[in-house]
Every structure is written in C-alpha cells, then in structure tokens.
Specification:
The complex is a heterodimer of chains A (about 675) and B (about 260).
Chain A (H helix, E strand, L loop, with lengths): L1 H17 L3 H23 L3 E12 L2 E13 L5 E4 L1 H4 L2 E7 L5 E10 L4 E6 L24 E6 L7 E12 L27 E4 L11 E4 L4 E8 L7 E5 H14 L5 E2 L2 E4 L10 E6 L4 H4 L7 E5 L2 E2 L8 H9 L6 E8 L2 E8 L1 E2 L7 E4 L4 E5 L2 H6 L8 E6 L17 E5 L2 E2 L3 H5 L11 E7 L2 E7 L17 E2 L2 E6 L1 H6 L6 E7 L4 H4 L7 E5 L2 E2 L9 H8 L6 E8 L2 E8 L1 E2 L9 E4 L4 E5 L2 H6 L9 E6 L4 H4 L7 E5 L2 E2 L3 H13 L6 E7 L2 E7 L1 H5 L1
Antiparallel strand pairs in A: 1-2, 1-4, 2-3, 3-6, 4-5, 5-6, 7-8, 7-10, 8-9, 9-12, 10-11, 11-12, 13-20, 14-15, 15-16, 16-17, 16-18, 18-19, 21-22, 22-23, 23-24, 24-25, 24-26, 26-27, 28-35, 29-30, 30-31, 31-32, 31-33, 33-34, 36-37, 37-38, 38-39, 39-40, 39-41, 41-42
Chain B lengths: L1 H15 L2 H7 L6 H11 L3 E12 L2 E13 L5 E5 L4 E3 H4 L10 E10 L7 E9 L4 E6 L22 E7 L8 E12 L5 E5 L3 E4 L5 E7 L1 H6 L13 E5 H12 L9
Antiparallel strand pairs in B: 1-2, 1-5, 2-3, 3-7, 4-5, 5-6, 6-7, 8-9, 8-11, 9-10, 10-13, 11-12, 12-13
Classes of the chains: A alpha+beta (about 675), B alpha+beta (about 260).
Chain lengths: ~675, ~260
C-alpha cells in the first residue's frame, strides 16, 4: 500500500512539474504533505491507545473513585504502553482501548512523576505479540514550522488525530516577563514535573484526554509525548521530547522506577549576567548536603567532575539538571565553584533523591486521610524532620472533626498512644475495637506547635437513618383554587377547590371522586380560597384533620351537588423518609421506590424497583453507566423489588464467578434500558 | 447544680406571682429584669447541637458540619430543633412541592452539649414535621431531671406582642445565652395559622417566660416571592408557629422511639 501510494505520488509530481506555475507548485507540496501525513498516520495511529483510569483520590477524609482518560502508545511487542504519569496517577485499575476497539485490562509497570511519564502493560487473555512504535532517538532536525500530528483521545474520543506545526522545539514554560527561578516552583508543590527537559511547543490541537498520546512528525517518528495544553487561549500544546521520553520509559520497563541524585541546590542560567561560562546556583536548600558543604546561592559552577558546564539561557538548564540528577548514586561529585573571582573545589556525595510524595491512606474510624511525609514535603513545611503522617482531609462530623481539640488538614500526626507513626501501614494496623469506648491520644504538630488531641474513633460509620415524619392526613388529589370571583366569572356554582389530578387508590379516588369535581366544603366548613393561585390551604385543611378520621366532602359535579365520605390516609412517605442503602459493591446509593417517585415517573402504583440517589463515577455502578434517578428493576436473572432484593440479586450474580457481563435493566425516562455491569470492576 | 435548681425554682415562683407581670404592664424600656429571669428560667434548656448534613453528589456524600440551638422539651432529653437542621429540601427552595421526590440533604451524627458540660452527647432523630418546620431529637443515655421548657404551659400569641427569643452562642463566643426581642407584626391563616414576625429564629417567649411559639424562616415564601423590583415590602420571611401546634406535635413525638438505620 505504501509502495503504490509512492508510485502515484511520483506520477502526480512528474505531471505537475511539466506544468510549472506557482499555484501548481503549491498544489504539489500540499499533495506531497498529504501523502506524508497519511504515511505517518499509518505508522503510528494503529498503536495509539486510549486509557481508562479508575482513580482513587481523597476528599473530606475519605477515598473517592472517579474515572479519567488519557492516551498512550504501544512501545513493545509485550504490550508496554507509554503514557503520562498524571494519566496513571492514583490509578486503582486501568483499561486499554486499542485502535480496533478491543479492550484489555492493564497493570502499572512504573511511574516517574519527575518526568511525568509512566508505563502500563496490557494483559491479554492469552499471550500475544503487539504491534508497536518507537520514540525518535534525536530531534536535532526538528525545527519551528515542521508539521506534527497529535494522536490520541481528546475528551475521550479515541483514534483522533490533529495536525499543526512545531512552534518551538525547545521551550521552557517561562515567558519573557517571568523570572526563570520561579519555573520550578510552578511545576507542582509536592510533585514537580518537567524539571529535566525543555518542551516541544506546537499548535496541533490537543485537549484533555490527549495526555500521554504521541506527537508524530511527517517521517512517522514519535517526536514527543503530548502532556500539557491550554484549554483556553489558543492552540498551545507542549510535548515531552521523544528521546527523553524513550529513555525514561525503557528504564521504567527495566526497573519500574527512575533513581536520581539530589545534591540540595537548584540552578539558573547566566542570562542577564556578564558571564559566558558556567551555571549559577539559584537556591540552596537549608540543611542539605550543599548547604553543609558551604555552597551559596549566587555561586557559579564552572565544572562538574572535570567537565566544563554552561547554561547561558534558561532553556539550557533542564539538561544540566538532568545530567546532575543522573550521576551514579553514591559517587563523589566534584564541582569547581567560582565565588568573588576565586575558584574552589567542592566535593559532594551523590545521595539518592528522596521520594517526592508519600503514600495516601484514609482511616475510617478516625475520619482522616493522610499521606506519608517525605523529606521534600517536610522541608517545604519547615519541619525538623520527615517523620509523621500529614493529614490531608477530615471527614466532617467524623472522629477527628470532634476530637478535643479537633484535628485539621495540615496537622502532622507524630504519635498515636505513644506509638511513632511514619507509614500509613502503621495507622492501618491500629485495630479499633467495635463500639469500644476507647480514646486515643494523638501527638500532632501544627504550625510549629506540638499539641495533644484526644480522639474517640467511630466504628458505626455511615449510618443512614431514614427521616421519619409525624403522620399527616392526605386526601390524594391535586387541586386548583377557585375563588369566589373566579367561580362567578366561570359561572360555577360555588368557590372551592377543583380536582385537577386524582392519585390512583387514594382516599378520594376510593370515595368515587373524579377529576373536575369542585370540592366546596370539608366537615361542613366551607372551602373558600382566598385567591386563585394557592392550593396549599386545601392541603393544610386536610392536614389539620387527624389521620384515619371519617370525613365528608361536599362537592359539585356537572352542576349537581354530591357527597364524598372517606377516611384520610396518612400521607405518602417523602423521599427523605424512605430507606436508603449505600451499596459499597456498586459504589452507589440506592433508595427504595416511593409513591412520589412512581407519580413523577408516570409508573404504576405497584411498580417495583429501587431508585439510584447517586453513583460514584469511578465505581462499578458508574462504570456500568448507571445514572442518578435510574430505577433498577432487574439485575442478572433476578427481579429487583426493593433494596434487599437488589443486594441479594447482586450477590447471586457475582456468586456465578463468571467474567460474563451482568445485565441490569433500568427505567430511564420513558424507556426500559439495558446496561451491563462488568465483574472486572468489582474485583479491581 | 442543686443551687441552680433552687434558684430557678425561686425565680419561677417570683415570676408567677407577678414580679414579671409588673414589667409587662409598663412600657418596657429596660429589659434587664426580663433577660435575667428568662435566662435563669430557661437558659439551661437552650443547648448547642452539632450535626453533619450530607447530600449525595455523584454517588459520594458531600458533608458539612454545622450547629444550631436546640430546646430541651422534656426532663429526659427530648430536644426540639428546626427541621432544617435535620433535612433540607432543595425542591422547596426552588418553589417546588416539599417532601416529595426532590433532592434532600439529610443530617446525621447529632451531638448535644448540655450547659456546663464539656461532653458532646450523642443524640438520635425521633421524628420531624416538615409542615411545621420542626424536628425532635432524643439524647442517648440522657441524664435525668434536665431543665426543660414545658410547651404545654404556653401563652397565646397576638399581633402587636413583643416576644423574646433565647439562644446560645457558639463555643468560640463562650457558649453563653443571648436573648433578643422581636415583634409579632401580623397574623395569617393562609395557608395555615401563623404569625408574621420580626426577630430571631428560635423558641419565642412572652415577657413572663411562657413559650409563645417557634420562630423560623419560611423558605417557601422566599421561593414564591414574585416581586422582582423589591416593591412587595409587606412580605416577611420569618414566621411564628403558635405554641399549641408545637406542643401537640411534641406530644406526639415524645411517644415515639428513635428512628433506626436501614440495614
């Protein structure tokens, strides 16, 4: 196919050359470009994948599941997929959608937040060899104006491709008006990314969902990984250079992680100085190795391990940062430093870079989410050390929220009951006895103060009590107020309340009332609306009667007086008073179907089922595309009558231990619709 | 504590023998005697309640912790709170029909702090009356012989009367009783008998300390307000539910067990 296309191209080119005009020359270029685009597309697009990530984040001290999507490229025959670290961030499970629509689960092989790159590996049911593409090994020939193609799944729309040109192949995200020293501060508070490379700036349209997808040149090379873009303000997109990305992902495949060196200082270029050689130390971390060795902000490094180093412009700095970061761990690093026109030698040991951010965890009994404190996090918070767990969220009303004093996000837990805490597993291992009246003593650090707090954990979390109401009388109709003047103008015999809707099996319906009847008195008391707009006084008059009392309405039907004798029933239970269930397997809140649900959805009074009050988008229910207000009437092979039968139906369907999709029939609007629950999401 | 009870008893006798009646009879310009007697008589019955209100958003509960004042209405720990502290019906706010199938924020994890206590006692929901805008909680393992407001000994509200709402400040302000006069500005029977008032929400007392009714915001009137130019100035959003209705509903609530969780 490529060959025939080339021949065709040659023939067309030859023909066009015979008729030399400016416009024909332009047409030829366009045609040639179109063919090159097609070739580049065919070389890479078939191995571009969409990635569905089920994320677990923490909100209000609790884990929350949500779904996000990104893009990636298959880069090995074993099904390794290169993508962005922010696509896999906090991922609990992954699913890959291939070019042909096939879906496979995937596992995380490694992630490197400092470069914002990660590698997943598809898990096929039987071993297979995947088609794959490779990253460009150098970009020396990539220049502004070169056509590039962005491939991926913008907004989750898979197999998409857009074209643009390279704006700048070496871009640092610092405008002319910014101080380059601020650059790293903007990269992320606890997880800086993009420190070790300059970006490829281009204008091929990308959108959320393109992250991790390839940027391809017209030679069919992957020249970059699309990572950042601007949703507002034009087509500005930024890609990680392909050679850098290729290097990182190969190391992730080999080792699962990237180990780097930290020396405790940051660099800035010579821009704006009189110097032409070397690089300036921009900042020295207090108490770091560099600090202890006497390095100062403003010192100029002129050589590294005997090699001259120079960064004249800000864009030269990332490569130098990378060179230092990739020095052998444990090696001795020799710098020549110039200060006040004197050159001295400083030796530092290449210590491993500490983890940027620790693991997250939520403790339900204590009502908190925490993250392990790391050295960089501790330093940024001016702490003496990196011991302890940082509280990232508090569950409102939970144990921590009513501790004495109450705990706050930002507090650092040092000890609980005198046990030192450094890892989330230590917090998880504290077994809270059910319903025990036990208090725990927390030693916390808050704004440099070392405080004590007493906390009683909760074991009866998330109790959901239906909100009952005092019984009120209910007649079972909706009415329209007919005032005296309106009655006169309408030539009706009397003012009153005209029945506009009669609920089936309601007390008035059972008494023989019909829509259109004009109710003129209740228990001998005239029903006389004060105005035309309010029907509420009628309902209030009914509510003022004790439920189950025998009453008599006088009414007018077709101009003739009639009497309606009945007992008022207790009013139907409102939605707040109905039984709810937080079905953790589906990550959904279910409520029993009430009278008003049936009325609002135009369902029969004996319609069974349960209604969804809410569905977590990243939970199994959300991934089955269940929506709020869906009414589940069947799950698997079982009819759903109420919340208990739903739970049993789910357990029964799952007990089959099959990977087959479980059908769910829901009432949605005017349709009965089938959805499919994938047991995979329940297991992952 | 015993001393306090004696003091309250003495004060109650003094009030019932006309000490306060004298205050009522004259044109009130000095409220200090009323304040003192009311705080002494009812201050300990006004307690702080914390709760967590939750609404389901995308399958996840969004929760906020809030607090309000409750009135002890029995010696064994029955509490009267505004229904808004227990459930908040967004459809009513939007002018829809309350209590049907709309989005409702629900509260749980009620905790009560009695006066002069440092402990937050757990309380459970008993029931509510959305039409009256009231709800009732019961303190779990409540202490006995608590000071309470006997709603059956209420007075009759009338337009033109002055009333006094007794509240309690939050912890940050010392959890002290405060008191504010209000005025019954009118009476309506549409859709039900209520008094249109100016003042603060809460249990309203007359000058002798008799409960007159429960003052609260009527969100339905806010939602149904039609005047867009602000010229419909007669509408008021505070209303007083007469005490006989409150007492009757409280009597019903007092006979009920606490609501139980779904299993």
């Amino acid at each position: 196919m490529f060959l025939s296309k080339s021949l065709l191209s040659f023939a067309i080119s030859f023909f066009l050359l015979l008729a030399i005009t400016n416009s024909n020359a332009q047409t030829m270029e366009r045609s040639s470009d179109a063919q090159r685009i097609s070739k580049a597309r065919d070389a890479v697009l078939p191995v571009v994948v969409s990635i569905l990530t089920v994320r677990q984040d923490y909100q209000q001290g609790e884990p929350v599941l949500s779904v996000s999507s990104g893009s990636g490229t298959v880069i090995s025959a074993q099904g390794h997929i290169a993508t962005n670290a922010h696509v896999t961030q906090n991922g609990k499970s992954f699913r890959i959608v291939f070019f042909d629509g096939r879906e496979l689960p995937a596992k995380l092989i490694g992630t490197d937040t400092a470069s914002d790159l990660a590698v997943l590996q598809a898990i096929p049911p039987t071993p297979e060899t995947f088609a794959f593409a490779r990253f460009a090994e150098n970009l020396d020939d990539l220049t502004p104006g070169d056509t590039v193609l962005a491939m991926g799944a913008p907004w989750g729309l898979s197999n998409s491709m857009s074209a643009g040109v390279v704006n700048n192949p070496r871009r640092l995200l610092v405008s002319l008006f910014d101080d380059e020293a601020d650059y790293e501060d903007r990269l992320g508070v606890d997880e800086p990314t993009g420190r070790y490379y300059a970006w490829i700036q281009h204008d091929a349209a990308i959108a959320p969902g393109n992250s991790g997808g390839p940027l391809v040149d017209l030679n069919g090379r992957i020249v970059g990984v699309n990572t950042r873009g601007m949703i507002m303000g034009g087509d500005l997109a930024f890609a990680i250079p392909g050679p850098d990305a290729g290097d990182v992902v190969q190391r992730l495949i080999a080792n699962g992680e990237i180990k780097r060196v930290a020396l405790g200082f940051r660099l800035r270029s010579l821009k704006g100085t009189r110097y032409t050689d070397g690089v300036l130390i921009n900042a020295v971390e207090r108490r770091s190795q560099a600090d202890k060795a006497g390095l100062l902000a403003g010192d100029r490094i002129v050589s590294l391990n005997g090699d001259q180093v120079t960064a004249r412009q800000p864009v030269d700095v990332p490569a130098l940062q990378r060179r230092i970061a990739e020095l052998p761990i444990g090696s001795q690093v020799v710098f020549k430093i110039e200060r006040n026109a004197k050159v001295s030698e400083v030796k530092l040991k290449a210590d491993p870079q500490p983890k940027s951010r620790g693991d997250d965890f939520a403790s339900s009994p204590f009502g908190i989410s925490v993250t392990e404190l790391t050295q960089p996090m501790g330093r940024r918070r001016h702490l003496d050390d990196d011991a302890g767990l940082l509280i990232t969220g508090i569950r409102p009303g939970g144990a921590a929220a009513i501790a004495r004093p109450k705990l706050q996000a930002g507090d650092i837990i040092r000890k609980i009951d005198n046990q030192v805490l450094n890892e989330t597993s230590q917090l998880a291992s504290i077994v809270v006895p059910v319903n025990a009246e036990k208090y725990y003593l927390f030693e916390i650090e808050r704004d440099d103060e070392k405080m004590l707090a007493l906390l009683k954990p909760e074991s009866n979390d998330k109790v959901r009590v239906p909100l009952p109401e005092l019984p009120k009388s209910w007649s079972g109709v909706e009415v329209q107020a007919i005032s005296s003047s309106l009655a006169k103008d309408m030539k009706l015999a009397s003012p009153g309340y005209r029945i506009t809707r009669l609920y089936p099996n309601s007390p008035l319906a059972k008494a023989g009332a019909k829509t259109g009847d004009l109710l003129v008195s209740l228990q001998g008391q005239k029903l006389k609306p004060a105005n035309d707009s309010a029907s509420e006084p009628f309902h209030q008059a009914v509510r003022d009667v004790v439920p189950e009392t025998e009453v008599k309405f006088e009414a007018i039907r077709n101009g003739q007086p009639i009497s309606l004798k009945l007992s008022f029933a207790p009013s139907p239970i409102s939605s707040a008073g109905l039984k709810t269930l937080n079905l953790s397997k589906l990550r959904a809140e279910i409520r029993e179907l009430g009278f008003y649900d049936r009325v609002n959805e135009h369902l029969s009074v004996d319609q069974n089922g349960v209604i969804l009050d809410g569905v977590e988008s990243g939970g199994p229910g959300g991934l089955a595309h269940l929506n709020r207000s869906d009414i589940i009437i069947r799950l698997g092979k079982t009819d759903v009558v109420n919340v208990e039968t739903l739970r049993k139906a789910l357990d029964l369907a799952l007990s089959a231990k099959s990977n087959a999709l479980i059908p769910i029939i829901v009432i949605r609007g005017s349709e009965n619709r089938v959805l499919y629950l994938d047991p995979y999401w329940l297991d992952n | 504590m015993v001393t306090k009870i004696i003091l309250i008893a003495v004060c109650s006798v003094a009030m019932s023998t006309g000490l306060i009646a004298n205050v009522q009879a004259q044109n009130i310009s000095d409220y200090r005697p009323i304040y003192k007697s009311m705080v002494l008589k009812h201050g300990n019955a006004i307690v702080t309640v914390k709760f967590v209100m939750a609404i389901n958003s995308a399958g996840k509960e969004q929760r906020i912790e809030d607090r309000t004042q409750a009135v002890l209405v029995s010696s064994d720990g029955l509490l009267l709170v505004p229904d808004r502290a227990v459930s908040f019906d967004f459809s009513a706010m939007a002018g829809g029909k309350q209590g049907e199938a709309g989005m409702v924020a629900k509260s749980s994890e009620f905790r009560v702090r009695l006066v002069d206590s440092e402990d937050w006692l757990t309380a459970d929901l008993v029931t509510r009356d959305a039409a009256l805008g009231l709800a009732w909680l019961r303190i779990r393992n409540s202490p006995k012989n608590l000071t309470f407001v006997d709603l059956s000994l209420g007075g009759k509200p009338e337009p033109g009367m002055e009333f006094f709402t007794l509240l309690r400040t939050n912890d940050e302000s010392g959890s002290v009783p405060i008191w504010r006069p209000g005025l019954i500005m009118g009476e309506t029977r549409v859709p039900k008998l209520t008094y249109l008032v100016d003042g603060l929400p809460g249990l309203a007392f007359d000058t002798t300390g008799k409960p007159l009714g429960y003052v609260d915001v009527n969100f339905a009137t806010i939602a149904s307000a039609k005047s867009t130019m602000g010229l419909d100035m007669a509408n008021t959003n505070l209303q007083l539910t007469p005490i006989d209705k409150v007492a009757y509903a409280t009597g019903q609530a007092s006979k009920l067990p606490v609501a139980v969780a779904a299993k």
